[in-house]
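Incident log, structure service

09:12 report received: a user says their structure output differs between two submissions of the same chain.
09:20 pulled the input from the user's history:
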Amino acid sequence: MAVIRVALVGLDHWYSAIPLAEGVAARDTVRLVGIADAEPERAAEVARRCGVDRVETQWAALVEDPGVDAVLSFLSPDRNAEVCQAAAAAGKHIISTKPMARTLADATAVVDAVRSAGVCFLPAESRQRLGPRSQFLKSWVEQGRLGRLASATQTIWAGLPRRWPDDPDPGWFADPARTVGGAWIDHSVYQLDTLRWLLGEEVVSITGTVGNVRHPDLPVEDIGVAVVTFSGGAIATLEDTWTAPDGGFQMSGTYVGSEGAVRVDGIEKRTHVLADFPPFQGWIQTATPAGHDQAADIDHWVAVIREEAEPIATVADGWRNLAACLAFYDAVRTGQHATPEVAPW
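09:34 re-ran on a clean worker, output below:
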């Protein structure tokens, strides 16, 4: 089949945008045909790394180009929804930044545009479902090896994000006018998506707290902890911070069911499993499955576009993840439990 021509629009969330651009450049099934960013020097830098000749300062130049089949949209959330709507209207398939929008109204407009156009939309936070660790957990849940999941705990300790690799200023990541929140949503949006997918359930109640314990002058939180209840009764605790010292990044997770448990240790880089079936009995320590290769997500995206695979996630997942995150911040403001808005479709 014809090579899929891809444009990268926005480098605000460069942590994902650059690896994906490099993944596109390294594959024969897709071709990176242009990069757009409001800061042309950033676009030019990535273009050189990926062997791309075309650099634009206006995203519309690529989104509206009939020579582009698909778009990687990694603008900040306040600007992302507009691009995704325009891309869908132009018939482009989309991988979108996380969260997909700053408000549910904007997210709903994206859902409507994507569904009306019939294009493929892959939320950035859902791509981790394709990774070896997530696939390992999903297989154990589906095989009944853990029984019914009752509780989970996920933690990510990180330092302040950077607006660009060599710039320690967090930029839009810490600007409340451009995103939903700070440290908590930065990573909890991944955690919520994983748990929704593992459980096959939706968030029905969420509460928690945020604070600024290392960066008191930051206009958004540098730590947040949530307690989340799912529709089947499982309860999860999510802790996400920008308080880690240099070199202190780690992510861990514990998943406890009626028949077994799994703990993925982000410091020891080991996975501990509790089960009672060959070859496992009692607590066993194994190597943690390999980390997530962001670039490999391109292969899944291409297969879905070519109708060779079912999507691992859809635009509706991005909407529901955002709804749960917004409910958390509502709960923080009121000091009560909050229920995410129900999808209007």
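09:41 both user submissions now match this output. Likely a transient worker issue. Closing.
09:42 reviewer note: The chain has two domains: 4-125+296-313, 132-291+323-334. The radius of gyration is 20 Å.
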